[in-house]
Every structure is written in structure tokens, then in C-alpha cells.
Design brief:
308 residues; alpha+beta; 12 strands
Amino acid sequence: MSSDDTVRAFPARSIETHSALTPDRAEAVLALLAEAAGVDGQQPVSEQGRLQLRGGAREGVSHLLLTVGDELVGYAQLEDTDPVEAPAAELVVHPAHRGHGHGRALGAALLAASGKRLRVWAHGGHPAARHLAQVLGLTLFRELRQMRRPLSDLNLPDPVLPEGVTVRTFVPGKDDTAWLAVNAAAFAHHPEQGSLTQRDLDDRKAEPWFDPAGFFLAERRGELIGFHWTKAHAEEGLGEVYVLGVRPGDQGGGLGKSLTTIGLRHLADQQLPTAMLYVDADNQAAVSVYERLGFTTYETDLMYRTET
């Protein structure tokens, strides 16, 4: 959520809702997101949200386009796919058009579309977004930390794998089904990550950054039990602990730490100066592990919701 909250009369403003975006509209939204990211220093819409801009309709996903005259000045995405949680949204107003109530107009449209049962991300937790959440009657309930550490002079103990466990890299097509199953089990408590589908995996495999050489799978007797998927953000000089998961029942034996070390060494070998990852602030066990590995909090994304 990256926007403003002042309400003013704006007769030329209109908001249209689409189940799918044409290629031209998708490109216009991506250009708007790039402008906002350049000013705010933070992507206003998540990777999943950006992937959902293309490829036609997706069940439960709606796109709200706010225009003034013929110009696109605001965008929101609403995803209603979780059977339990309230619909989730992200929104942004073009930096040159803030201060005119467009953010509040998009927020009001999201509340109406969701039946006033809504969760909204504020990436980076900027003060204007926090205030807009307050104006919309939303309360803070989740904090997602981005943590970072240098990759230069990486001095970590050699990974010690549990007995009978081997590590290899992902083979696209061959390992998809097994990985989706272990991912769902490892992140059953996590509404975004745990619900990834084959289409979501295919979207990521089609991205320019995808590299199976940085996607590590841990197996015992040929059965997948854990993984560490890394990601290189070459332009930003960042390597990411993209997804790290261990199957329930195989947790607590040091596999997660060993997989983390293997992935960090791979990223360091790519000459990337810094590693990053995301972790829920209330997951103290994971936060402590990453702090012991040298990570510190860089910034925090906030999620707000209507009262339940």
C-alpha cells in the first residue's frame, strides 16, 4: 500500500474493475509500479501480485484501475482465494498524483468489493500508507521483516546434513509435483506461500531470474524432505533466500540451517555482495536462526486488516 488519504472532489476520477488485464493495461500498470518503486525505494506490489498482472484471468483475483481522464494514476489488486482469511489487497498511487484522495478512493473500493472484510499490505511501512490504513479503519496485525547480511567474507561452518540426507538441484518438470507437495506441507500455516499451485511455479520458472542451479533439494532415500530456493537480483546486487522449507517431521534436526548455508555459499559464488530474506516478525525461532547467521533487519512490511 503506497498512497495518500486526503478526500477531495475529483469529478474526472473513475475506478474500473477487471478480472484480467489486456497486455497494454498490464504494461501500463507495470510502468506505474516502476515509477512508484523509484520514488519510494520499495516495490508497492509483491512479486506474486506482479506475476498476476499477466497471463489472463485467475480465480479470485481482481484488478482495480483508477484513471483521471485517460491517465492511469492508481492501481489495486484484490485476491480472494484463501478459504479462511479475508481477501488480501495491495494498492498504489502514482507519485505525481498523490495528495488528491486517490488512495482513499481505491481503499474504499476495495472495502466495498470485499464486503468490508479486507487485509492490505503496506510494503516498507511508509508513514502515508500507515495513515491511510488508519483512515480506512484498518488495524495492524502482521509484520514481515526483510533481513540482510553481507556475503563478502562469508565465514559459516560447513553444513552437516542429517544421516541419510543428500542434496541436489531442482530439475524442472521432474521435481515440480514433489516440490509443490513439500512446500504446501512446510507452509501449511502460511497463506501465501503454502497455497502455490503449478501455475504459480510455472510463472516463476518463466522469469528471467529463474536458475535451477540455485534451487537445492534435500532428499532421504529418494524422497524430498526439504529445499532452499535462492534468487539473484543482479541489478540490485542482492541474493535472496527466496524460499526455505523443511517437511514437518523432518524439522529440528539442523537441515534448515545446513540448506541455508548451502544456498548462501551459492549466492556468494555468484559475486553478489549482499543476501536478503523475508521472515514474519512473530516467528521468533526463525528470526533467531537468521540473526545467528549474521542477518539484521533492513526494513519491515506491514499488513493491516479490518476488525474481525
